[in-house]
Amino acid sequence: MKNLILLPSKSKTGTFAQDAWQLNLLAVVLIPLVWLLTAEWIHRGVLDAEFWLECFFPYFPAYLFSYLLLLSGYLFLVALSKCHLLATLITGLLANLPATVTFFKLQIRNEPLLPWDFTLAGELVGIMEHVHLEIQPSMICTLVLGGVLLLCTGFLRLPRRGRFALNLKKRLLTALGAAGLALLLIFGVFLQTGVCNFFGIYGYAWNQTSVYEKYGVMAGFLQNLQNLKVEKPHDYSQEAVESLEEQVQSSQGELTDAFAPLVSGEEAVEQPNIIYVMSEAFWDPTALPGVTFDRNLTPNLDRLRQEAAYGQSYSPSFAGGTCNVEFEALTGFSNEHLPQGSTPFQQHVTHDTFSYSQYLRSQGYETLAIHTYYRKYWSRDRAYPYLGFDTFLSAEDFTGGEYERGFLSDGTLMERIISEFETRRESGDEDPLFIHAVSMQNHSTYSARKYPEEELVQVQAPGLSANLLGQLRDYATGIYQADAALGELVEYFRQVEEPTIIVFWGDHMNNIGSSLEIYNATGYLTGQEDEAQQSAKLHQTPLLIWSNYQQQSVDLGTVSAYNISPLVTQLYGLDRPLYFDFLLQQLPVLRGRTVGVTIQPDGSFSTDLTEEQQASLDQQALLQYDYLFGEAYQEDYVPDTGGAAPKSTQ
Prior knowledge:
The chain has 650 residues and is of the alpha/beta class. Helix content is 45%, strand content 10%. It contains 23 helices and 15 strands. It has helices at 16-44, 49-56, 60-81, 84-109, 121-127, 137-153, 168-190, 193-198, 208-215, 217-223, 238-250, 299-304, 322-331, 344-347, 356-362, 380-386, 410-426, 466-494, 517-521, 531-539, 564-571, 578-586, 611-628; strands at 273-279, 292-293, 309-314, 366-371, 391-393, 403-404, 407-408, 433-438, 459-460, 500-506, 540-547, 554-560, 592-594, 597-599, 605-606. Strands 5-4-8-1-10-11-3-12 form an eight-stranded mixed β-sheet, sandwiched between helices. A three-stranded antiparallel β-sheet has the order 13-14-15, covered by helices on one side. Strand 6 and strand 7 form a beta hairpin. The longest helix has 29 residues, at 16-44. The protein is globular, with a radius of gyration of 28 Å. The termini are far apart. 46% of the residues are buried.
């Protein structure tokens, strides 16, 4: 059959070509619309009245432009290939695959698919074996509908005769026009902030979930292409940077007393060993209402709070993005000044970059990074040397060691930290040591089958499903073992004569169950929280700063992850780069600004900024831009280290 014919043969009135033309037009108009709606169905899980009344009609231009882009793509493919089936297949994949990834990414990380996610293909392949994904009814229905459309369009051909026929010249002109429309939509609409704003399409870098919910997957994704390049601050210049430096220097004697030094003057140790331990998904699940456990999950952390500085680290990430937390803690830079969802280790740390480890190395420290997973993930093997680490030990460098849940255990990580310290001292190396260690044992996803039954923490949680309860037991067991490992590390260095500081914090909270299921099911999230309150509940993890030469309990409250390193220098009277002085001087104005949330000086949270806070944040953005992307006008910028690859030892 060469044509899809409604009549057995060509009619006497010559309507065959006209009928074929009408069917072609119907396919071109309707199939992109079908794919647009199935994509939103997959993304949201349902197309209910809320979608139509609160998203589709109020933000109609966004969906219209998305539809026109799909239509132009469909028309381009048909005109070039003369094949509706091919156009149906490709546009269907372009619309529905991103929607599917967005759905699952929202379930896992509460974040949609973003343009820079395509740089993470290697990481995705590596973690898929640890993630359980359930195919949704919307996906099954879309596959069935797609099969029907492919079957129908497989018989559809372009008109070959009459005034509706499309010869080669007409097809090429049609393809050219369709390509022009697509380019106009991408470069003239989605990549133009002013045009998007004119049509009511606004980007909220700190809340991409809301962007995709309002404008749909295609518009949300394409609008984010504007964020691939970090714009230079409008007032960036050498004069502006040097003026700000002078302002910070002149105020060095006026640092906030909100975080008074634990040691100062003659009591201060000039170059203590410093050990950072960033614990995977470490958080206290006893905060879940109505849930009880058969033991204290964090006895060591609780005990150490009586002799250390403690509080909460406000993480820029939730349910993933570990390297972004590392980036903040090591550099003092805020992800607030970068596109949400970007990965600085892969996109921005591509040259020698200012960091605390760079600074310490310039002061004579030996710098060592340890991670109990593979070295290539999050491009740590490339980023760590640019951040000033002499040596990087990853899972490939561990022989033996204990595994839990398929990962090297937290206990094994602590043993390696101790072993590396002892090895250097036995060899006669007396240089002060900076270690940055990142654990992996409690990585998502969770299942009670990952531990022997006798090891699992017992949990009482009325109303939770057996599956969700099993996942919570798995997670709680990991927290208990991470706390035990912390206790072992501290007790070892308590006996060491060399002054040593240990900084321990959780990188981020994790989903337990699908999306925010555990938090909603237990009432931890009530649904009455505003944006700032919900973010605060989902982005705070325990923080501990302990030393073996000063035991004093200090409540730090909540501080941003990028203030961890400046606070270590403040509490222990350590030399620090001028940029850290700026961050410390900023604390009376704001304790942090991350993912669109301001940590107020009184410990409350808000999405708003006062004029003073905005001015301070603009200054921070200026300095951060200078370090990461600009000319490095700041005088204390760490000298070039050549970015040599760090050593890997067994």
